[in-house]
Amino acid sequence: MNAILLTGVIALAPLAALESDEIQGQWKGTTTVAGNGHQSKVVAKIAALGGNKYGGIVHVTDPKGDVHEAPISFEVETKGSAVTVTGSSEMKGEPVKVSGTISEGSFTGSFDAPEEKGTFALTREKLKSPTAGKKAPEGAIVLFDGKSLNAWKKARSKNAPAGWKVVDGAMQVVPKSGSVQSKQPLGDGHYHIEFKTPFMPESRGQARGNSGVYFQGRYEVQVLDSFGQPPRDNEAGGIYKVSVPKVNASYPPGEWQTYDVDFEAPKFEGGKMVAPGKITVRHNGVVIHEDVELTKTTNGAADNKMDQPGGVMLQDHGNPVEYRNLWMMPKK
Fold it and tell me: Where is the 3-keto-alpha-glucoside-1,2-lyase/3-keto-2-hydroxy-glucal hydratase domain (predicted)?
């Protein structure tokens, strides 16, 4: 089965008994073509879009190893006591009928296309970054200890207190309080950041769990609920107007994610840049940028003093994004 555009209806009873996050997430499995038994691998990333609507992206790897990608969308309804799926999709521009059931983390069913028929079986994956909870090594600068914001100030101020709050060991954006910046200026090194975007199914685009991490307060790696979206420079992991992530490695909102970043600031001599900065970013353990050159600040930077050290800045973009376990190991 090649790439499909899935639209359908999931009937749940009672709807309130199945929370949205039991549908939202990453589903993985196979399709099997009737007759010849050919199997394709499938990964579907499904995001809640408010009310009874869901959408995302499906990746299908066919028997030849070719990968196909298409958006998916469906709606949820209650019909008696059944949890059933009926809908339509597209394959090579042709309509495909899809039917199945969702129960206890399994999504199984069948597809019926003009050129082939078959079955599919998917299971919902539990996602966890391989570096989540990684402890700061000896010699690292701990930027947030899970207890106080003493190491932080309001961004672009001399020493005004940070306006965010600490919730369950995480620092949380207080919308409209302003971005925060580490009091200690930082330079080259390895940065570890853990973040969690809020569940905002009714919101869209840049209004959906928006924040950002600015290295030295000048070079942003975007934080956003981009689960189920194609990679873009203004989606999660993007370096705005500089570099599009190699892949979108996002997890669903409400799940802790990680950025592990190797950062080198631009080098200056006599006020002139003699070497660009460089940044390598791993998002949830996946390399999404590798040695990307930094020759200018990104939008929303705290300043443009590129020849000076600067504190890392976390952006207030109006959404209650959370951060924890922030530390930096200076380059030796």
Answer: 139-328
